[in-house]
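To whoever is on call:

I kicked off a structure prediction for a single chain this morning and the downstream step that reads the tokens threw a length-mismatch warning. I double-checked the sequence; it's 518 residues and nothing unusual in it as far as I can see. Pasting both halves so you can look.
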Amino acid sequence: MQERSPLYYTLIVSIGGFLFGFDASVISGAIVYLDALYDISSLTKGWIVSAPAFSAMFAMLGGGVLSDRIGRKKTLQIVAFCYVLSAFLSAISQNMGSLVAARMLGGMAFGGALIIVPVYISEISPAKQRGRLVSIQQMNIVVGFLAAYFSNYFIGVYLDQWVNELDIWRWMLAVELLPALLYVILLPKIPESPVWLESRVGLANPLISMELEHSSLEGEVSVSSSLFRWVMHQKKHISLLWSPTWRPIFLVAIFLGILQQITGINAIFFYATSIFEKTGIGIDASLAQTVAVGVINIVFTLLAFLTIDRYGRRFLLLWGLFGMILSMSLTAYGFANAKYVLTKETIAKYEQKFEFDQSFQVFQELIGVSYTNEGAFKVELAKALNQISWIEEENIADDDKSNIFKVLVLESKQFNSWLVLIGILGFVASFACSLGPVMWVVLSEIFPTHLRGLGISIVGFLNSFTSWVTQFVFPIELNIIGDGYTYAIFAAIGAIGWWVIYRYLPETKGKSLEILVE
């Protein structure tokens, strides 16, 4: 095999990060069409969106063990195959159950990729390049988000002229096949990790030296071998994590891992198009605004990488959380102040659906009345629609009636959509330059070397579990307590997080572990 630079191999394996970002966020556009076509329940919607996060939890626990047994390269090839199969099965799904199962397969893939790709990159990289090379994985994740948003926008706005509207969501999900197949084709070109080979046979493969700094690598082999040995004694190290010395650090790390997800970031990323559509701007404009979310995410993630070593981890976390609290409060205020007013003009748009000798009588008590509670308005609107005699009743499907109800709700909403857009974009920007990338940097620095792998694995599992719960509960929460209260809860959680970080998190930039413990 021809020798290549570590950067070359890093660019190949970090396609796994791109696929994670794409796979996770492409559903934000597809779910809008699925909901319109099949009127899926909040419970079903939650499962469709959160299914990958659910299976990723277990892949994150088992991926490291598998890669220790069969190698980093073979495990990544399994990951790539799972991405391809998941994209294909998602696109041809015949029901919601098969779609959830296909997306769970994708979750197994990106759960494994999140664990193994950074490990592989760190093991092939010279010490002086390791930080920058590992960061490529994070950048590829946010680029994957943006690519999915652009893809959804292009398909939803332009491709609908050429394909059946019933299949638009399938095309959105099928696009992932292209980068997934590329991943499968390119992975055979990478070498196995020299550190993994050393742990298995005691010999570094001379064919894959890749011009590493040999002295640095040789000095790290013994450390890596030690890490493999202590993996076999996890119970002992869990007890060490819970010892009086390390328990405060462990608890702070767990809090950070949970906080990153419970503040609602993946609810925003994965339901972005649905959120913007609820402002009444239409699906095309919603897809366009979702693209803006992806652009903001990339720009402010870059800002974090450029400033984290200058201003420190704690500084970015505190100011980022302040921005998240303010932005979520603004979003909550925008939704809470929405009003619903049904007009004669709105009803007239659908006169072909109604017997108009009675429709205005049916809606008489609703027309012109301002409702500040979405639930109350929906109840009264549903009562009115149930009293209508539909033209050619046998030709009006239940889905058509449901869609008319949704359209009347949206067109009756009087809403400051710009306020919500500013709030959502501000939230994403604040997260991208704080909790998003900074949390993982803090975790890599806050644990001692001999406890770092186990500590990050536990926090990673809890982080993924919290992500799944947040995604799953979000549509149910919106349905039960409404948009305003939901975003207000996210803001309140952020405020609690700000206080805990201010009170208990030390600055880890440039400080030794002994100082942190003291």
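Update from on-call: the warning came from a stale cache, not from the record. Cleared it. Sanity check on the structure: DSSP finds 26 helices and three strands in the chain.
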